[in-house]
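Appendix C reproduces, verbatim, an entry submitted by the partner laboratory led by Prof. M.T., so that reviewers can inspect both the input and the predicted structure.
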Amino acid sequence: MITILLADDHKIFRDGLRPLFTAQPDMEVVAEAENGRDALRLAEELRPTVAVLDISMPELSGLEVTRSLSQRAPDVHVIILSMHSDRRFVVEALRSGARGYLLKDSGFEELVHAIRSVVDGGVHLGRAVSEQVVQDYVALAREEEPGVAQPLSAREREVLQLLANGLATKEVAERLHLSVKTVESHRKAVMDKLEIHNIAELTKYAIRTGLTEIE
């Protein structure tokens, strides 16, 4: 039986997918999550065969969850669902450890095919993700492109995501149970590493690399 963790911050989307998975004779949804932090916790606890993750979720993005799972639960196969066909999102998802990347307007049959493909050891990119994206990924795997590589630590990316989502430094500190001074230190480190000097540019970087998106 292929067990599935379904993570998306829109309940109506999860409610639509769950019965479709249930109708498959070899698939079962064992858990759902509405934010990235819960998705990561449930994936570590339950070790589902596949985690189907929205790329943009509260708390932690789908990419951040994928990075963590690749280290802490590598047996969980990750498929990213996204509204973005931009090669930068696809490249970052694959580099983070995802085994599949589909657009949200893909058909359910393709999602089922993707799940079975990654369980069998393959990698699945949605039909709408162009051949050029694959070519770009191969090229970028050989040479680092500015703005795609992630020189930040997991904590720094976490702070960046929350700042890009509009939280003030004090709110970030409360959310992460850190001191304001520590958050300020992380923010400075992020800016220094990326050579970015204001929140607006940090937000653009976060959008470009899939940490957050414009609603």
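Residues 156 and 189 are 8 Å apart (CA to CA). Additional entries are available on request from the coordinating office.
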